Amino acid sequence: MSKRNELLRPLKSGVKSLLYPLYERRLLSQLDFTQTPHHVGVILDGNRRWAKSNYGTSVEAGHRAGAQKIVELLNWCEEADVNIITLWLLSTDNLNREPAELDALLRIIAAAVDHLDELGRWEIKPLGALDLLPEWLQSKLRDVEKRSKARTKITVNVAIGYGGRREIVDAVRNYIHDGVAHGQSASAIADGLSVEEISKHLYTAGTPDPELVIRTSGEQRLSGFLLWQSAHSEFYFCEAYWPDFRRVDFLRALRAYAQRHRRFGR
């Protein structure tokens, strides 16, 4: 049976390649781009499992395949009038991986950010606990952010060394430091603590919250991604591993978002 499946695989692939463009056009005809979310967050998950499922491809090759998918996604976002996209490239937990894998991953991420910068189309904003990253990468991210400021097509937040709990702790810590710097008493600082004040000190301060969060690879959890900001977000979980994520999958996510009635607790 497995040999038969191997023989049929090219045929199935050919049929899919013929049908997907038709399906894409049908999806596009159903979408109302006035209902497009302005800010989309994406958890790029499944690179390692994609590598394993592709005949034992190396983990590094899986991360490279995932990095190459990013430009495609940004092109789709432009077509759909998405203004801001936040890409979770590396979590704080990922920093605990084996040194050899982590170093390779950091260099792949750096190359991906360089490529986005070289295209000259998007404003690139790093966010996360950047102080946890190697100095060479911190320096690169600062330079790219500065260089890309005037670009207006899409704002691309690259979440590197990012953890939602760490972000909230950092926001509260920075709020307290600001209060102390302005000579406030502990009581005044505590009394002034509010949702608005914490929001001002988040990594995403000044950026509207995401209306839609997409996660690939079939996992149905946030794992700490934009914990504060996603309080009213819609979620879309896709079975495809990130390197296999297609335009059809993105359009399905937009369609699912447009079909939902956002009540904001009302």
Mind explaining what this structure looks like?
With 266 residues, the protein is α/β, with parallel strands linked by helices. It has a domain of 175 residues: Undecaprenyl pyrophosphate synthetase. It contains 9 helices and 6 strands, in the order αβααβαβαβαααββα. A 6-stranded parallel β-sheet has the order 3-4-2-1-5-6, sandwiched between helices. Strand 3, helix 5 and strand 4 form a beta-alpha-beta unit. The longest helix has 29 residues. The protein is globular and about 70 Å long. The chain starts with a helix and ends in a 7-residue tail after the last helix.
List keywords for this structure.
266 residues; 51% helix; six-stranded parallel sheet; alpha/beta; globular; Undecaprenyl pyrophosphate synthetase; single chain; 9 helices
